[in-house]
Amino acid sequence: MSFENDIRKFAKKAGTNMVNVRKSLFFDLSKQIMERTPVDKGRAIGNWIPSIGKPSRRTTRGNNNFVMARVQNVLKKTRFDDTLYLVNNLPYINKLEYGGYSDGPLTTGGFSNKAPKGMVRVTVAGAMVSLRKAVRGLK
């Protein structure tokens, strides 16, 4: 069963508008990814860029102060059939996700202490588990 099918089942069983389910899930996933992103100067968090239809290719010099506002602005424009993206185009974002970044003494394997198993992978894995439990729990 695909993640998208899980969302559709959840929306149908809950009697909820699919757009609202997707918006809520995207907002929550975005927030969790940002909360899990290691912070040095805040630039990594500030470069999570939400978009509709295609992934953004830009970066910003900003910090994390306006990220959730950008997410909310994108969600205001979202329609049923839109594809939502959250990307980070900083050259070192893979090091943050897959190891090699230090936010203090490195843990085993060279991973960040704050995100030893990444930010995105952990968030998505948890979201799928949570959504599947919610779908199974609906009668």
Largest sheet: 2 strands, antiparallel
Strand order of the largest sheet: 1-2
Q: Could you tell me the number of beta strands? A: 2
Percent strand: 5-15%
Cα separation of the termini? 18 Å
What is the N-to-C order of secondary-structure elements (H for helix, E for strand)? HHHEHEHH
Chain-averaged pLDDT: 80
Radius of gyration over all CA atoms, rounded: 16 Å
Helix and strand composition category: mainly alpha
Share of residues in helices? 40-55%
> Shape, please?
globular
Provide the low-confidence segments as ranges: 105-111
Please give the count of helices: 6
Number of domains: 1
Could you walk me through the main structural features you see in this protein, from its secondary elements to its overall organization?
There is one protein chain. The chain is mostly helical. The protein has one domain (3-89, 119-131). Helix content is 50%, strand content 6%. The protein is built from six helices and two strands. α1 (3-14) packs parallel to α6, α2 runs antiparallel to α4 and α2 (18-36) runs antiparallel to α6 (120-137). Residues 105-111 have low confidence and may be disordered.
